[in-house]
Design goal:
The protein has 118 residues and is mainly β. The protein contains no helices and 11 strands.
Length: 118
């Protein structure tokens, strides 16, 4: 059973930066992964999509994070990253990673808390 493990969350001041990571704990073939995504869920709100990266390295972002967040992947480590710069209090949320295979199977992480506060 493949599980995803996020790491790197924490408390940061407004305007600061943070990088979070996500890697599978079980065995998964990198070639089977179609899309890698980050989502987030703020208190009292629905989970929302934040960013994605496809096998060719093409990325896409939710409008509110464009120009501030960067998603990247390391195929050798089967890991994705989310570099978050110019953080705002409204970025405070639990961040989840999601892997989708070509067969349509999806795997989720347990989430990592990111808090932006002075």
């Amino acid at each position: 059973q493949v599980q995803l493990v996020e790491s790197g969350g924490g408390l940061v001041q407004p305007g600061g930066s943070l990088r979070i990571s996500c890697a599978p704990s079980g065995n998964i073939f990198i070639i089977s992964i179609a899309l890698m995504r980050w989502y987030r869920q703020a208190p009292g709100k629905l989970r929302e999509w934040v960013a994605l990266i496809d096998p060719d390295g093409i990325t896409n972002y939710e409008d509110s994070v464009k120009g501030r967040f960067t998603i990247s992947r390391d195929n050798d480590k089967k890991t994705i990253y989310l570099q978050m710069n110019s953080l705002k209090p409204e970025d405070t949320a639990i961040y989840y990673c999601n892997f989708q295979t070509y067969r349509g199977n999806e795997f989720w992480g347990q989430g990592t808390q990111v808090t932006v506060s002075s």
